[in-house]
Design brief:
This is No apical meristem-associated C-terminal domain-containing protein. By secondary structure, this protein is mainly alpha-helical. It has 4 helices and no strands.
């Protein structure tokens, strides 16, 4: 037990200064300060990994990245095309609705014209009736209707 020396703990006062004045040997200090630290384990492993990954591996990775970018561009273009098709379909839908409204308006106008024509035909039939052979009440009804038709014609003109 006597032979084992206790380990000394380094203290802050026992440390040596960074530079020692060597006088004429000052060039030794400058040369020793330029020495690099030895590479650590992690740095050495990283260096080995970089060596293992050759240029061909880099080219493969770059090619894969280029394929991914190309696929992304293709998908984006397809999305734009789809959006354009949807826009065209919406525009067609709007134009079809407008056409449908025009057709409905024309249909209403045609129904109005048809109603006027039927009314005109009925008025003409009433105006051409011979009321002399009719019973007096019916004769009076048709004469009154004829007067109404004549009055409405006079207002229109």
């Amino acid at each position: 037990m006597n032979m084992v020396k206790p380990k000394k703990k380094p203290s802050s006062h026992d440390s040596t200064p960074n530079s020692i004045n060597l006088g004429e040997y000052e060039y030794f200090h400058v040369a020793s300060s330029n020495l690099e630290r030895p590479i650590g384990r992690k740095a050495e492993k990283e260096k080995q990994k970089r060596k293992e990954m050759t240029n061909s591996d880099s080219i493969v990775v770059l090619n894969e990245m280029a394929k991914i970018r190309k696929n992304k561009l293709v998908l984006m273009q397809e999305a734009r095309d789809h959006d354009n098709k949807m826009l065209c379909l919406r525009q067609e839908k709007v134009s079809l609705r407008q056409e449908e409204l025009l057709i409905q308006k024309e249909k209403v106008l045609l129904q109005q014209v048809k109603a006027r024509l039927e009314e005109k035909i009925e008025d003409e039939r009433i105006m051409t009736l011979n009321t002399s052979a009719m019973p007096p009440m019916l004769q009076q009804y048709y004469l009154q209707r004829q007067m109404e038709i004549l009055a409405s014609r006079a207002r229109k003109n």
